[in-house]
Design brief:
Alpha-Beta Plaits; five-stranded mixed β-sheet; globular; binds flavin-adenine dinucleotide; 43% helix; alpha+beta
């Protein structure tokens, strides 16, 4: 039987040093681990970094999404992890992304500016739906550019 799909959206505060090399190396580690775990767990989604915050969408079978979120909450590379949404969905928004990463390129920053001006560029002031739409649009643009 096909398992029901759920979408989880959260944001958190970065605890990784803002030193460019240190930050990039840590994000590379997070993405490598995320992508291997998420393929195993049938999870897809995307991760945004902007203004000192992470925002992430995870979609997949409920049990696997909840287990991933449990591990993510324990991770001291970020903190103040705040759940914004956990809802059933009929289809995936990120079918081709074990974990996309957006927000650091100039193009992404420009796009983010358009959406987030009202939030003071702070993902913590965006709703789960707004973060989902922003990440979906950014990953669609990345796919088109690839
Ligand atoms: P292992 O990789 O064996 O790690 C064991 C423990 O060590 C875990 O508690 C882990 O948190 C910790 N750890 C490992 N490396 C470091 C390090 N460099 N610094 C500090 N602690 C470390 N995981 C996913 O599976 N899917 C995701 O989509 C995902 N997204 C993430 C997004 C963000 C913003 C962050 C910060 C982390 C994310 N992670 C994700 C990583 C997650 O927090 C766990 O580290 C990972 O799932 C643990 O994998 P593992 O059980 O295979 O343990």
């Amino acid at each position: 039987m096909t398992q029901s799909l759920y979408r989880l959206v959260y944001y958190s505060r970065n605890h990784i040093s803002s030193d460019d090399g240190m930050f990039a190396a840590n994000v590379d580690d997070i993405l490598a681990k995320s992508r291997s775990n998420n393929v195993r767990d049938q999870i897809t989604g995307a991760l945004l970094f902007n203004a000192g915050c992470f925002a992430q969408v995870l979609e997949g079978p409920l049990e696997n999404v909840e287990a991933a979120f449990e591990r993510i909450q324990q991770d001291d590379r970020h903190g103040d992890v705040s759940l914004l949404a956990l809802d059933p969905i009929s289809h995936r928004s990120f079918p081709n992304w074990a974990m996309g990463f957006v927000g650091t390129s100039d193009v992404d920053a420009e796009r983010f500016t358009g959406v987030a001006t009202a939030s003071g560029f702070d993902p913590s002031h965006l709703s789960g739906d707004q973060i989902h739409t922003l990440l979906r649009d950014l990953t669609i643009e990345e796919e088109a550019a690839a």
